[in-house]
């Protein structure tokens, strides 16, 4: 019997042999002969001389081998009171026609297409249509504001934008078209066309470069899959870094398909024909990997859910979906269950549904905090599995492999490194940390297939962000430790990235927006603990000398500014005007200290602090604004 240990050892001792075997499990047009190569920075390149197409692997291949009538997508939209099922054949045919429509607009292999859509089947159709043409999609999350969209348009330089007329949230319809129009006013790059899916909840007014989705497909002819190299780009997905400019994480066709197939079988324990439900959004990496691509690559059915964990209509929504579609594995973020627990602490909603079909619950996006783990573990009869990953890796780095050799669960731990990931914890000197000693979590090269191949058009940033800190290792940006049994505990970011309701955001970027206000001299934005969202940002600002306006009004303006420039998902609800900020003598703001004060943790006053009395200002402002306090009171 294969054990986790033997599989893992094989994967790190002979990665090329290991991943050659896995590559043979997906259909290639030309199987790769060279499995592993390295670029000039020493970063792994997988399957460079193989030829395939991800759309073929996920759709056409299954239709050709007898899965044509099996549902590929169950779309469930409580916010619009709609449902739709698409079989593999229907999905393949609709993708082929939409690919023909994009080709008609001039989209060719290597061209970029920005997709700005909510959780509708057409979003998946657009993504697969790009893959079919060898074009590179870049999906932008619907909660981002026009400026964020513009930054991505300027970086990716898409030939075409594909969007919907609106998104639908719990109690509101969000017009998307004005956001696109505004983004195009802000961006230097202009696409040659926009395709708009008109939704009945709100039809968009069309402009000169706009094409109606429906009209376009009525006149389009289906096209076949274009053959691409294993290393050719499938998509760019922007993620928050430590600066205002997001990083365009690039993913390839070959490594991605092989890795996702491996993960579905070994991590998620999914067999072809079974139903997989990932309650995320296509705008995030979880959505890309485990709503759009992995389930279909494996021949499973994916549930596309346009709703929330609560309020659509209540806290039993997930249980309803699991029962209705006979879901075998369910995946969401811990924050979603904290929201459910808040509304339904005793899990009453579960009593209304028979979820005996469910085999495993998976959680990721942030650490599965032990209280949420225990709540779920008590409530459910299935394993509750935390697993750790990030946009850059595209699939889990550490997990409890349900399809290989399940291990006892330790609350707070993501269990063991996944085969292919040589995970190490290094101390500040770059030496291996001892068991239970926290350090910087890194991955020794070569990274396995499926991980980022670079940052779009910015090799220098790729090097400085990930490769420079510890030569030969990829820097994850997370801190953590291994315990004496080899279980990995990921404890949080070591940089300015924060995790708000499972959404990755940059406090550095928020600082840039707050600092751009005419009345602001200096500012800091820090992520503080929040019992629902995990973390939320809080801003502290020093007004410019001579500012004699209303500080309450300034605080409100800054909150509105961040919402306008970044989007509602930034969730910045508190900004505090202070007269001083704690700094080192060299002028660096002591952000960690600010976090500790807000979180009510004990802290020592660093010897490098310039003016210890500045702490009093900050503490007083936090007490006055009840920063963190209301939340702490809720947790008691
Ligand atoms: N399009 C437009 N706006 C969006 C949006 C979208 N796709 N998603 C969220 N927003 C808006 C919300 O409407 C809200 O606006 P508001 O300030 O006007 O109310 C704001 O962004 C903040 O959203 P969110 O942080 O999601 O808070 P919430 O209170 O609406 O919901 C949760 C809280 C926990 C229920 C929700 O965040 C959730 O389901 N999280 C799971 C996240 C997840 O799956 N992440 C993927 C990683 S696995
Ligand atoms: P994203 O790129 O949006 O997927 O966010 C990745 C970051 O989320 C990681 O670097 C971690 O900080 C955090 N994260 C995701 N999953 C986990 C987990 N299971 N445990 C701890 N942190 C996690």
From TrEMBL:
SUPFAM superfamilies: Acetyl-CoA synthetase-like
Ranges for domain Acetyl-coenzyme A synthetase N-terminal: 4-57
TM spans (from-to): none
PROSITE patterns: AMP_BINDING (PS00455)
Gene3D superfamilies (UniProt xref): 3.30.300.30, N-terminal domain of ligase-like
Domain AMP-binding enzyme C-terminal: 509-588
Family annotation (Pfam families): ACAS_N (PF16177), AMP-binding (PF00501), AMP-binding_C (PF13193)
Residue ranges of every copy of the AMP-dependent synthetase/ligase domain listed in the record: 66-446
GO cellular component annotations of the record: intracellular organelle lumen
Molecular function GO labels: propionate-CoA ligase activity
Database matches in CDD domains: PrpE
Family stated for the protein in its record: Belongs to the ATP-dependent AMP-binding enzyme family.
Designated name of the protein: Propionyl-CoA synthetase
């Amino acid at each position: 019997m294969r054990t986790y240990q033997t599989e893992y050892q094989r994967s790190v001792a002979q990665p090329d042999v290991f991943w050659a075997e896995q590559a043979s499990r997906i259909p290639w047009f030309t199987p790769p002969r060279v499995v592993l190569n390295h670029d000039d920075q020493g970063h792994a390149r997988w399957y460079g001389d193989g030829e395939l197409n991800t759309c073929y692997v996920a759709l056409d291949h299954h239709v050709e081998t007898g899965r044509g009538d099996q549902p590929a997508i169950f779309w469930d939209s409580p916010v619009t009171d709609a449902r739709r099922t698409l079989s593999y054949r229907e999905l393949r045919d609709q993708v082929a026609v939409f690919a023909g429509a994009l080709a008609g607009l001039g989209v060719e292999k290597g061209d970029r297409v920005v997709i700005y859509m909510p959780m509708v089947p057409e979003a998946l159709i657009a993504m697969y249509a790009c893959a079919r043409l060898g074009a590179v999609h870049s999906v932008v999350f619907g909660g981002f504001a026009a400026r964020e969209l513009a930054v991505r348009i300027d970086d990716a330089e898409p030939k075409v934008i594909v969007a919907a007329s609106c998104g639908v949230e719990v109690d509101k319809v969000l017009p998307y078209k004005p956001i696109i129009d505004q983004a195009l006013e802000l961006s230097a790059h202009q696409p040659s066309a926009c395709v708009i899916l008109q939704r009945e909840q709100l039809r968009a007014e069309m402009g000169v470069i706009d094409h109606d989705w429906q009209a376009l497909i009525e006149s389009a002819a289906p096209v076949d899959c274009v053959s691409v190299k294993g290393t050719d780009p499938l998509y760019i997905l922007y993620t928050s870094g430590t600066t205002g400019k997001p990083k365009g994480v690039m993913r390839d066709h070959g490594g991605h398909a092989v890795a996702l197939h491996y993960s579905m079988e070994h991590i998620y324990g999914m067999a072809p024909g079974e139903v997989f439900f990932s309650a995320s959004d296509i705008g995030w990496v979880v959505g890309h990997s485990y709503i759009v691509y992995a389930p279909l690559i494996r021949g499973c059915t994916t549930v596309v859910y346009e709703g929330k964990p609560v309020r659509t209509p209540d806290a039993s929504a997930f249980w309803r979906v699991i029962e209705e579609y006979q879901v075998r594995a369910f995946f969401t973020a811990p924050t979603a269950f904290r929201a459910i627990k808040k509304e339904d602490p005793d899990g009453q909603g579960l009593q209304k549904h028979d979820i005996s079909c469910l085999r495993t619950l998976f959680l990721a996006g942030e650490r599965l905090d032990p209280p949420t783990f225990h709540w779920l573990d008590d409530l459910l009869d299935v394993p509750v599995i935390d697993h750790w990953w990030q946009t850059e890796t595209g699939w889990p780095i550490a997990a409890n492999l349900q399809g290989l050799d399940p291990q006892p669960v330790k609350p707070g731990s993501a269990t063991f490194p996944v085969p292919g990931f040589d995970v190490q914890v290094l101390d500040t000197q770059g030496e291996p940390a001892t068991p239970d000693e926290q350090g910087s979590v890194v991955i020794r090269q070569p990274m396995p297939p499926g991980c980022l191949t670079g940052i779009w058009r910015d090799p220098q940033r790729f090097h400085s962000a990930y490769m420079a800190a510890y030569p030969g290792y990829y820097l994850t940006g997370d801190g953590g430790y291994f315990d004496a049994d080899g279980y990995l505990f990921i404890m949080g970011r070591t940089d300015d990235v924060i995790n708000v309701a499972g959404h990755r955001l940059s406090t550095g970027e928020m600082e840039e927006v707050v600092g751009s206000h005419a009345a602001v001299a200096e500012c800091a934005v820090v992520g503080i603990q929040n019992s629902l969202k995990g973390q939320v940002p809080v801003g502290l600002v020093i007004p410019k000398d001579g500012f004699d306006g209303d500080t309450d009004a300034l605080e409100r303006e800054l909150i509105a500014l961040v919402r306008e420039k970044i989007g509602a998902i930034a969730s910045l609800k508190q900004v505090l005007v202070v007269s001083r900020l704690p700094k080192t003598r060299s002028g660096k703001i002591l952000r960690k200290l600010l976090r500790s004060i807000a979180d009510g943790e004990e802290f020592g006053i660093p010897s490098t602090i310039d003016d210890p009395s500045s702490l009093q200002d900050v503490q007083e402002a936090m007490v006055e604004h009840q920063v963190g306090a209301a939340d702490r009171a809720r947790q008691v």
